[in-house]
């Protein structure tokens, strides 16, 4: 039913507002996003976490690393909304700061892996001679579970936040390569690419002007979904003690510390865990929504 | 005085196979196109028409195919050109229109930008006068409200309009040779006629030669000066359009003409199809490739592939004409 509604509302604006096509296509896109409840909820969740993390120094009620042993292991109260940890630090404050690390890790991992993955995918898909080498290497990488590979990479590079980010990024690269290569393969065989070759356009120009814009939507969708799973991997690494090091907060690390006090202080694990879950859920909802909105069949 | 624009000699195209070496797609193809002439290239699906067209622009991938023979454009062999020189020829001296107008324009770019790209590439326009020139070209191909169409996307236009845009792109640099690969197959009949008229008009204005590839004999009789009939990767008959339609010689050509509806047909409007299909490439090792579908096939047809026999200005590749013709 909602699908039907979407379709009919898509057809009309296009045919009526022909003159303002470029503006209306953005408006159309926003309209589609608005119609999709999942995407709307997802983006609201993300907006909440992005805003609170960005404003952490302003809205945090306590200094992030200040210990206060009198208040240690207190449950949620009006003074400490989400309780305190074993050193009496405010969990809410630490989560605000931890969110900055987690979100930045996700952003960095997706940017790095996206850049590498798209480049390799385009090369494999467009210049078929290198295809077999890139894809076989990619397949080898894909045989490792991504978390296991991230752990292995951290083991090689050493423990620390930057290395954890790099490890997560590398473990995400294969899925970018695969998706981009597949899309490029289908786009390079289209007649408009052949036609642009037939008017004498150079290869790199064909890639930038004709192929990349047409594979943009799968890249955007994948980036959104991978954003969520990167945050999860980063949190897992921190949980294992391989990411951000104490006393600096990170959601995964907070869960890790809270684990030791699970029987006395449930709030120490619950709230950071909930934050991870909500952010990943937000990204997945947004990714699904984007997939529907950017689907060329619904144009 | 006719000037020879393009001359293809003994062209062989074969593709690398996974198992057994190579598969030959085009065999020993020789033909020429004069300036301002329209040459029709006819044949069933899979007979090598499109491969021939692509090879004229050197758009066949090199690492999976072999091309032999010479392709001379104004006396120069394009197989010897560097990739850079070839790019300056594509879209400039030789350009191409494709079969499927719905997919030959990039959906993410505006019409004006796509036509402007050709002009930029071959330095016929700069940033300032690009839009102006684009509109001028669009008007020439009969696009209404050209000023606003340059800012529209391909999905907002109909198939006929898009094919006009493709023609506009192809003709933007006044090419010497226009290769039209089934330009009207995907369009309905009334639009077909308009597109053909447009191509004729532009041809007269710019003295462009057209290589018209199609399986529609109606289009050929309308447009072409000379016709080449291909079967299984080789030329089976070549003649000027009148001779070919009045006096077809090769059994395959006769079969093709019989399968076109004709108002005065004695056969009560029934069509006579050619039995069977084009054999798969590489299947026939010796003899005439058409023999399995030919009513006149005899022993010799199984033994040896006939050469082209010349009779007046008509060329036929069939043993039936061995006596009356001269081997070309």
TrEMBL record, chain A:
Bilayer-crossing regions = 39-60, 103-127, 139-158, 164-180, 265-287
Q: Which UniProt keywords apply?
A: Cell membrane, Membrane, Transmembrane, Transmembrane helix, Transport
**How is the protein disposed in the membrane?**
Multi-pass membrane protein
Q: Which Gene3D superfamilies match?
A: MetI-like
Give the top-rank taxon of the lineage listed in the UniProt record for this protein. Answer: Bacteria
Asked if the keyword Transmembrane belongs to this entry, the reply reads: yes
Annotated compartments: Cell membrane
Cellular component (GO) terms are:
plasma membrane
Q: What is its main location?
A: membrane
Q: Which GO terms describe its biological process?
A: transmembrane transport
Spell out the Pfam families in the cross-references: BPD_transp_1, OppC_N
Family classification: Belongs to the binding-protein-dependent transport system permease family.
Protein name as it appears in the record: ABC transporter permease
Q: What is the lineage of its organism?
A: Bacteria, Bacillati, Bacillota, Bacilli, Bacillales
Automatic annotation (TrEMBL), chain B:
Gene3D superfamilies attached here? P-loop containing nucleotide triphosphate hydrolases (3.40.50.300)
Primary subcellular site in the record, as a coarse category: membrane
Q: Name one GO molecular function term.
A: ATP binding
Q: Where is the ABC transporter domain?
A: 8-257
**Membrane-related topology note:** Peripheral membrane protein
> What are the GO cellular component annotations?
plasma membrane
Recorded hits in PROSITE patterns, A to Z, give: ABC_TRANSPORTER_1, ABC_TRANSPORTER_2
Record keywords: ATP-binding, Cell membrane, Membrane, Nucleotide-binding, Transport
Coiled-coil ranges from the UniProt annotation: none
- Subcellular compartments: Cell membrane
Q: Which GO terms describe its biological process?
A: peptide transport
Asked whether the keyword NADP is assigned, the reply is no
Q: Does the keyword Plastid apply?
A: no
Recorded family membership: Belongs to the ABC transporter superfamily.
Protein name, UniProt field: ABC transporter ATP-binding protein
This protein's species is: Psychrobacillus vulpis
């Amino acid at each position: 039913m909602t699908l039907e509604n979407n379709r009919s509302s898509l057809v009309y604006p296009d045919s009526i507002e022909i003159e303002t096509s470029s503006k209306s296509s953005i408006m159309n896109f926003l309209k589609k996003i608005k119609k999709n409840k999942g995407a709307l909820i997802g983006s609201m969740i993300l907006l909440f976490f992005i805003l609170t993390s960005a404003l952490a120094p302003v809205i945090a009620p306590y200094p992030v690393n200040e210990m206060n042993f009198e208040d240690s292991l207190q449950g949620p109260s009006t003074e400490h909304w989400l309780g305190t940890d074993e050193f009496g630090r405010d969990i809410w404050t630490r989560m605000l700061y931890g969110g900055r690390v987690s979100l930045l890790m996700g952003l960095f991992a997706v940017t790095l892996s996206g850049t590498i993955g798209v480049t390799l995918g385009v090369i494999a898909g467009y210049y078929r001679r290198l295809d077999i080498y890139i894809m076989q290497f990619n397949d080898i990488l894909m045989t490792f579970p991504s978390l296991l590979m991230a752990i292995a990479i951290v083991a090689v590079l050493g423990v620390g936040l930057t290395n954890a980010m790099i490890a997560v990024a590398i473990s995400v690269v294969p899925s970018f390569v695969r998706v981009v290569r597949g899309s490029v393969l289908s786009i390079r065989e289209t007649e408009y690419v052949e036609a642009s070759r037939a008017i004498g356009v150079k290869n790199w120009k064909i890639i930038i002007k004709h192929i990349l814009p047409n594979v943009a939507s799968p890249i955007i969708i994948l980036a959104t979904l991978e954003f969520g799973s990167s945050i999860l991997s980063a949190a897992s690494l921190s949980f294992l003690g391989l990411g951000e090091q104490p006393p600096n907060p990170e959601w995964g690390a907070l869960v890790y510390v809270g684990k030791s006090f699970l029987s006395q202080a449930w709030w120490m694990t619950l709230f950071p865990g909930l934050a991870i879950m909500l952010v990943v859920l937000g990204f997945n909802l947004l990714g699904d929504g984007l997939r529907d909105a950017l689907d060329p069949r619904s144009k | 005085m006719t000037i020879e624009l393009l001359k293809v000699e003994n062209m062989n195209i074969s593709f690398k196979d996974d198992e057994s070496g190579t598969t030959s797609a085009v065999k020993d193809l020789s033909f020429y196109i004069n300036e301002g002439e329209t040459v029709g290239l006819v044949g069933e699906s899979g007979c090598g028409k499109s491969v021939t067209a692509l090879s004229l622009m050197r758009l066949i991938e090199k690492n999976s195919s072999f091309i032999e023979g010479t392709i001379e454009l104004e006396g120069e062999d394009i197989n010897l050109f560097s990739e850079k020189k070839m790019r300056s020829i594509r879209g400039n001296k030789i350009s191409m229109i494709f079969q499927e107008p719905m997919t030959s324009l990039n959906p993410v770019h505006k019409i004006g930008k796509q036509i402007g790209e050709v002009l930029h590439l071959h330095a016929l326009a700069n940033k300032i006068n690009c839009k102006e020139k684009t509109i001028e070209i669009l008007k020439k191909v009969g696009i209404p409200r050209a000023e606003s169409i340059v800012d529209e996307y391909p999905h907002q236009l109909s198939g006929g309009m898009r094919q006009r845009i493709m023609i506009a792109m192809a003709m933007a640099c006044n090419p010497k040779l226009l290769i039209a690969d089934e330009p009207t197959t995907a369009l309905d009949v009334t639009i077909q006629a308009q597109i053909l008229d447009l191509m004729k008009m532009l041809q007269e204005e710019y003295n462009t030669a057209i290589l018209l590839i199609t399986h529609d004999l109606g289009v050929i009789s309308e447009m072409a000066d000379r016709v080449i009939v291909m079967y299984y990767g080789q030329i089976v008959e070549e003649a000027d359009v009148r001779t070919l339609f009045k006096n077809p010689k090769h059994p395959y050509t006769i079969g093709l003409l019989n399968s076109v509806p004709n108002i005065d047909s004695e056969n009560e409007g029934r069509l006579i199809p050619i039995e069977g299909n084009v054999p798969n490439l590489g299947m026939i090792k010796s003899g005439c490739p058409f023999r399995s579908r030919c009513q006149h096939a005899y022993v010799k047809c199984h033994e040896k592939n006939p050469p082209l026999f010349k009779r007046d200005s008509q060329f036929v590749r069939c043993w039936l004409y061995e006596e009356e013709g001269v081997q070309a």
